[in-house]
Amino acid sequence: MNRRQFVYTMASSAAMFASAPRVFGAAVKYDLLIKGGRVIDPSMRLDAVCDVAISDGRIAAVETSIMAEAVEIIDARGKLVAPGLIDIHTHCARSGEGPGLVLQDGVTGWIDAGSQGADHIADTIAVAKTSPQQGRVLINIGRAGILADGDTMDLARADVAAAKDAIAKYRDLVVGVKARLSRDVAGTNDYEVVRRAQEVAASFNLPVMIHMGQTMSPVGKLVDLLKRGDIVTHMFAPPPNAMVDDSGHILPEVLAARRRGVWFDVGNGQTGHMRWDTIGTIMKAGFWPDTFSTDWNTNSKTTGVVDLPNCMSKLLGYGMTVSEAIACATVNASRMFPVFYDRGTLNVGAPADVALLELRVGTFEFLDNYKGTITGSQRFFPAGAVLAGKKG
Ligand SMILES: [Zn+2]
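^ thats the input. predicted complex w/ zinc ion below
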């Protein structure tokens, strides 16, 4: 056997035993090598110290020790290496600086959840178009978008024809319909607002995201209008009209919604969306979220939101593991919108979107939306991002 055949044989066995160190891989040259981090990728059931190699904007290898040259090396020792984070409920598109700011938090994909309706959808579309990472928008069924006096308090604003026209115009960037429903947003119109949101969504085969909590109608009646693939955000909203009853049981309509494939999202936010006692009851009932999201705004750093890694840390004290928390912000989120179907994973061939995180151990205080605090012993901190193979 000459040397070339020998190297070929070694390469074949390395491919067969992907976890074996690639001793003879030195000839390979990658664009970027992330070395020595604890790689946690729930999409591959992986939690191990590994190297991640990237070429041409895609994941090229994830192995115990990659002894190859690379144009650039990131020393990730002591850090977590996860698929790029996906935040499915933000208001990133309210300002041009939003996408760049959340990229620093490790967010490589975002959804703007209804900042604008038909009248000004072009504003959010413009931000999505220029975003460095993938950004898409949900159109607010209220044609004037988010209003201080209530998006659809005047039912005429839930204008089906206007929303359909706007989606038809921006079909590639509008990926769903948002219905905000609290008593100071939709009042007694909440049920009809969801019905109209579904009418709009049905024409384009799109999901509806409802914002629950403090509604006039019982939440069970509202979720009955949701189909497979729709999303309930603010799932930890306290009463009135929480998704648990007074004795701590999840409402039957909510259980039925999950059975038929409706997703449940945290939507941290700032006011009225989460309270520790309600969170404790829902977690104890075993109804855990599919996704975390921030409900991010440019002021989030000064609130209990801080960033997506902080929001991901809040349920570690309720029994969620580090890997489960990362799943909620990666692989689970990737399944909700087609634009993210090939994301949320570090499997070979996937677009190379990577979040670097630090998992610090100590004493950390976390805030709900009612000035309530809990203390946790672990917290995720952002420590960098790689977007399409480039350091963010
Ligand atoms: Zn929101």
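DSSP finds eleven helices and 15 strands in the chain.
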